[in-house]
Write a structure and sequence with these properties.
The structure is a single chain. The protein folds into two domains: about 60 residues; about 90 residues, TonB (TolA/TonB C-terminal domain). Helix content is about 35%, strand content about 15%. The chain is built from three helices and seven strands. Strands 3-2-7 form a three-stranded antiparallel β-sheet, covered by helices on one side. A two-stranded antiparallel sheet has the order 1-4. A two-stranded antiparallel ribbon has the order 5-6. Strand 2 and strand 3 form a beta hairpin. The N and C termini lie far apart (about 245 Å).
Amino acid sequence: MERPHHLQTANQSLSSRLLGMGATAAILFLAIGGLVTALATGAIIKQMQEIKASVEREKTPPKPPPPPPVDMVQPPPPTAIVPQFTTTVEAPPPPVTTAPKPPPPPPRVAVAPTTLAPIMRTHTQPPYPTISQRLGEQGKSEIIVNINEQGNVTDCKVEKGSGSDRLDTAACEYVKAHWRWNPPTQEGKPVSASTRVSVIWNLKDAQ
């Protein structure tokens, strides 16, 4: 027996509603599941990040705070001590000049020595003492004279008197003052000498 037409239509309408509700429920379920999944995934990621940050904080200890500044007087900078050196520069020695060698002396010629020689023009007769003439004194005064390198008489000594001291003294004084000699030489140089001389006193020669 066939159902009435209005029943079929009602059934079809109910079926369409149920299908629409089921589809809507399925969509809501999927949406809610996706939302829950997304929330769960975000929570997991956030939790992992927090765990990672916590681990990193544990690995890296916190830096201690800097110590408070200490009021200290800074020491002066070190001063470099420069040693003082005194350098003495010696003057260079004067140049050495070699003096020319003097020419060799001429060959020495042996010179024969000479003897004492009187200068006869000086050997004059001494004046006769006036008192000796009055007293008649006469004789020969033998005297020794010393002669220097210039031929002058430096000393006189009576070796043998005439018998009158007055005549002997007069003979020495006159010979020392007037008589001269050419002195002897040795190796070409004059040397002193001594000799004996005589002065004859004769009243015949008195003036």
